[in-house]
Design a protein that fits this description.
elongated; alpha+beta
Length: about 130
């Protein structure tokens, strides 16, 4: 396990987020939401955090969902919304320097994910 991955797990633990090292990445809860950090052993300076399955799309709402996803992607820093199969996910991608301070990065990133999720819901509601 890389030092950065260990440091992230330690930081999440210190914040009371109870991380679990899973096959797909580091799973944890934040404000009662399930999130995960996809870990890339080949590039441990790449930090990608996901808030999966915030909304299920179908053929009846696909156009509206794609319009709102595009708005989020245009108007939010660092965050991007994705359509994974029929589910909307919110993600962030960042490059870390060689001595990242996770207290400066992770909390703000998690808040950005939650804000983008909330904005997605609001924008989708306003289209109806």
């Amino acid at each position: 396990m890389s030092t950065i991955k260990q440091d992230i797990i330690e930081y999440l633990s210190e914040e009371g987020l109870r991380p679990q090292d899973k096959e797909y990445g580091i799973h944890f809860k934040y404000h009662m939401l399930s999130l995960f950090i996809r870990w890339d052993e080949e590039d441990d300076h790449y930090l990608s955090i996901y808030l999966p399955s915030i909304f299920s799309s179908d053929e009846n709402n696909r156009g509206d969902v794609l319009e709102v996803i595009n708005r989020i992607n245009l108007n939010h820093k660092v965050v991007k919304c994705l359509l994974v199969n029929d589910d909307v996910w919110v993600a962030t991608e960042q490059l870390l320097d060689s001595t990242p301070v996770f207290g400066d990065i992770i909390e703000r990133t998690l808040d950005m994910l939650v804000q983008a999720r909330d904005q997605f819901y609001e924008d989708l509601r306003n289209l109806s």
